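Researcher: Going back to the complex we discussed earlier. I've cleaned up the inputs and rechecked each line, so this should be the final set. Can you rerun the prediction on the complete assembly and write out the structure?
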Amino acid sequence: MVKGPTVYDVAERAGVSIATVSFAFSQPHRVRESTRNSVLDAARELGYVPSASARGLAKGRTGALGLFSFDYLNLLPEAAGDGAKSGSEADEDCRLFPIWVDEVQRGVELECFSRGYALMIGGGNKASGERAVTDIAGRVDGLIVFARTIPAEVTRRISARIPVVELSDPEGESSLHRVTIDNASGIGQLMEHLIGFHRFRRFMFVSIPNAENEARYNAYSAVLAAHGLEVQPPLESRPGASAVTAELIAELQDSGSLPDCFVCANDEEALVVLETLKAAGIPAPAQVAVTGFDGIVAGRLVRPSLTTVRQPMELIGRTAVDILIDTLTDPPATPSHRQLPVSLAVRESCGCRAQEN
Amino acid sequence: MVKGPTVYDVAERAGVSIATVSFAFSQPHRVRESTRNSVLDAARELGYVPSASARGLAKGRTGALGLFSFDYLNLLPEAAGDGAKSGSEADEDCRLFPIWVDEVQRGVELECFSRGYALMIGGGNKASGERAVTDIAGRVDGLIVFARTIPAEVTRRISARIPVVELSDPEGESSLHRVTIDNASGIGQLMEHLIGFHRFRRFMFVSIPNAENEARYNAYSAVLAAHGLEVQPPLESRPGASAVTAELIAELQDSGSLPDCFVCANDEEALVVLETLKAAGIPAPAQVAVTGFDGIVAGRLVRPSLTTVRQPMELIGRTAVDILIDTLTDPPATPSHRQLPVSLAVRESCGCRAQEN
DNA sequence: ATTCTTGATCTATGCGCATAAGTACGGGGG
DNA sequence: CCCCCGTACTTATGCGCATAGATCAAGAAT
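Model: Rerun complete. Updated structure for the full complex:
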């Protein structure tokens, strides 16, 4: 706390110049072994800890990558979902299961560490505004952001300075690097199972509107059209407002127009639908099947377990880091876009017996 | 990527000096509004992103806190545990449930963000050595480390430069700030329940040896002694080697000396014991009860659900951050040590019916 | 009218490190 | 014996920002 020792102190103690101290650490081969040892000894004795700020300033690189997460506090209410909390222990406000963001973050962490980069994590919310983002951006050599969490104008500005990877937005800003998943293929596999194996004919898509979900809806529509099946507009649920979903489903039931299967744009919505159906006394999957998309952990623990399309979440994080490091090493002419494959996870909620888990 | 604009560029464009640019951002009141606006406009037009390295160097503070986690890769095999993976989906190597470290980290993240600090996360393993730690240490204003993950000599050195909080080591280096939990009270509550309510008499403590577990064992011994019950040396399980535990338990069974209850030093061990008992055909808790310590998520999802002592994990993380920020604001004369309370979570594995979950 | 005050801005400097360019030295080849 | 060259260091400089202290203008006070 009392102002740590610097290269100057170490140099003086070792009886060499600061350049030699610097070399001793960063380019050992340029210093005779005896000299290097005396420098390292001096450093140890003094408790020298190099300043990353100074190093970053001098080198123009920080050696750290950044991940900008939106403030959990704001996401919690919707993210935790009904199924993720257990009643009496809900007081400890931890997430029972990792959600999408957590698993991706984990991939980012693992890849950063194994590649020798530090990871700077920033959080923000609507209030903290873009300050929070640029703050992180100013600290790192490359930044990973989740789609739709910060204004395009801001990411564009940042990407003029450091490489930015946007995660999972099929229609993202084209100046950014992107990691996306193959929504079309995932929906294709899923629908193939539902139509081909289960012989479902009447479907209802459930989603809140955003680019990702829209891509899924479009793929869904295309498959239905190809099979000559009727395409209805999506049932628009609202995040955190399961009551709305409940009402919509009640209407469907009253009018006798329940589908064979609810195809939900993501697992969280699917869990809400399952919950709602249970509450309404509609047996799932016996009367109505339900599917999700993402592959969050909660989906495999709920009963009936959720048939879904699984994203390689950890890989998404790892890939983002890989793109950044590649870019830093050897800047590509054009932003990279890596689309990762997804896989169908057939579980119970489509009407199949549990095959796994 | 092409070398971002600096204060000099902004100053030139706005027709002011760099000092004014700096003031416009950091001390708005010192700059006339019209000037400030023209500076901010210029900054926006140029896509100016302040360099945290330069700022950190100039101010002597980085505005970031650090958390040093050991490389997950090395912890995974033991940490994930048998119960945390589901067979056929084990290929995706994510953690099904957050473990202790995750929940603490989450607390650290939340507190950092809400207090306006960025969080630098570092990872390392035995191989990367102390370089990884000092690397992080050089980047931040304060550091949080998990007990027993890095050599005391290193933390001591670092703590000469920035405040360091060590998490949960009852016998930690006294020059460091510490956040610990009340092991004695937790064990006390637990044993009170087991002895007073369940009337168990013959106990067996299960643990791998470390300071934390020893503190728990000591508390356990004290309670038994106070009740005039026999105290046996702990059953030493080995991390990751559930076969060893199985063997030890088999021996106990053969010799007819199974206890009324296995008191495990932590939840992970308790899960292994439960698993082992199940495999051996010994009904738990009917014949032998089992308890854990920590309160990890997996413990409440397993059947029988695990009776345990719950640590306030998120709070531990938050408290560590709080200590650091306090210390930075107003350095205390002596390292702070905050001991947090724990609470008994009575579930099924002690023989009680499910009261919750 | 002159001096003091206050606010707004600028000039100059240093933070701690990396590194280009320079210096000193010693040995081998001519 | 001199020159060249490689090795092992050192000197000098700049990275981008914050900030103390200087400057300057425009009232306010005398």
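Model: Worth noting: The longest helix of chain A spans residues 313-329.
Researcher: Good, that matches what I expected from the previous run.
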